[in-house]
Every structure is written in C-alpha cells, then in structure tokens.
C-alpha cells in the first residue's frame, strides 16, 4: 500500500455546476454545433458518462459515443482533421497522443478526473522506482506523464485479460491508480498485484447497506456494477464490467429491472439497448445532499452544449489539447501496446465464436 496518496482525505477542486440551458438555447447551440462541425471538418467524440443531450448530438452528427478504449480507436481512424472530445482531460490527451497531426479540442480543459488527480506523476514515479522488479500497468484515467512512466496502459474492458496475460509470463504488477479495479483484477486473476491507492469519486460512493435496501425493494432486479466500485458492492452484482460490458449485460440479462451502479450518464445508451427494461440508479453513500457526486461525475457535467460550441468556434488555449513531443513518444508506447493487445484479443474472441 502506498503512503503517498490517501483517497479518504483527498480534497478535489470540484467545479461549479453549469447553468441549465432553456429549450430555445438548447436548440440554438445544437444547430450551431452542427454547422461548426462541418465547417471545421470535425467530429464529436463523447464518453458514455456525458449528459444525454451531448450523446444524442454525437449520434446525429456521425460521431462516437463509447468507453475510453473505443474513443481512442475511433479518433485515431476517423478522417476528420479536428476531434472534439467531450469527456475529461485525460481523454483529450490520449486522443492527441494517438493523433498528433489532428487538432484536439475539448469543451473545457478544466474537466478533471479524480483518478488522474489522485496519481501525480512525481509521486507515482517514486513509487515505481521503489519496486523496480514490477511491470507498471496504468489505467487510461491518468495523465500523459503517468502513461509515459508505464509499461502498459489498460482500460477496464480488457483489464482482466491483460493481467492474466502478464501473470502467465511470470510478471509481478504495479497497478494504478484505481485501488478497487486493481483489487478486482487481482481477485479475478490471482496475479501478484501491488495497487496504488486511488479511487473514482463516483464509484467509491456506492455502498452495500443502501444497495441491499434497494435490492429488497426490487427483489427481481439484477444489479450491474462497474469494478471501480468497492469489492463489497461488486460482491452483490449480477454483472460486473466496463461501461460497454455493462450495456451488453443489460441487453442480455433476462431481468426486466436493472439496478445500475455506475455514472448515470450510461443510462442513455443502456436504455437504447433495452428499451423495454426499467433502469434504476443505485444509491450513493450520501443518499441526498451529502453525496459528493450523486452518481454523476461533476467534471463530465462540464461538457455542455454552449462549451462545445465555444470550443469549435474559438479553439485556442482554453480548449485545445497540446502534448509535449517527447512526452507523447513515451506515452505512445504503452498506449500502442494496449491497442495491439485489444486487437489481438478481438481476433481471438472471433476465432473462438
């Protein structure tokens, strides 16, 4: 366990909640964004955790709604010269690392991630130096500098498979930054995993007591849990997985009611996948005004229509992502390893189908 970071005492610079737009303002900015996307040869790439109106606009304009792995793939292969990344800052950095020739814009560069904030490069590098015999695997939710320090980058959708692969080679692992996902992967694989002690403020708030009470109210409901949640919450799940895996599980599970323990932004695509089912938000620890995230990342909420329009119209220092060339080269290596491994995994899965 690292003594360098304590998620229980961490204080994050939470953003001010955006002012909701009126119906007329919403329509105005939607149409403006559509025009600007065409004028700039740009495409909108949105994460599952952004607000539904952002995801709907990405669909309408030929963009992408996905998890961070598919966002990385989509942006790298799309013909657009500009990517508008609606998400949090590490996603924009990842897009720039994979597509240095493209202009990468974000609605705001202040959209942080508690996992990224909780894994500062200098402290993490010292942690790695203290364990030189271990292979360093970092979650995509990290800065370019932390990625450059790693041997591998990974997303939750392929985390178990990658650690199984490294374990089969006899490698011992440093995992960062999410302690819950790291513990889940260790439990699933039996690998020797040393975890950095970061946590996602959204998933860390799901607690067993409140979830157990909700299960009692909905006894026929299945529970879907992201593995960034505490192990005791994962133990209550009928399905555990990444955002894309949870959407797939929602569609295939026979249950008509689903209690979903992840950011409520996922409901937009999940409801599309199973429109006949009832989706229920899993309760967070605060169960009201005392919760920190209330099951929605406060930084994801910064990706509003007005901010997207401003990014496309003005660009500049407030919106454009830049990554130092040397840092990009260092981060590109473990990112490409991830993408190559994911591609091999897809081929293997198809071959066994």
From TrEMBL:
Q: Which cofactors must be present for this protein to function?
A: [4Fe-4S] cluster
Which annotated residues bind iminosuccinate?
47, 68, 139-141, 156, 226-228, 243
The record's GO molecular-function terms, alphabetically, read: 4 iron, 4 sulfur cluster binding; metal ion binding; quinolinate synthetase A activity
- Part of which pathway? Cofactor biosynthesis; NAD(+) biosynthesis; quinolinate from iminoaspartate: step 1/1
Q: Which residues bind [4Fe-4S] cluster?
A: 113, 200, 297
NCBIfam families recorded? nadA, PRK09375.1-1, PRK09375.1-2
- This one is known as Quinolinate synthase
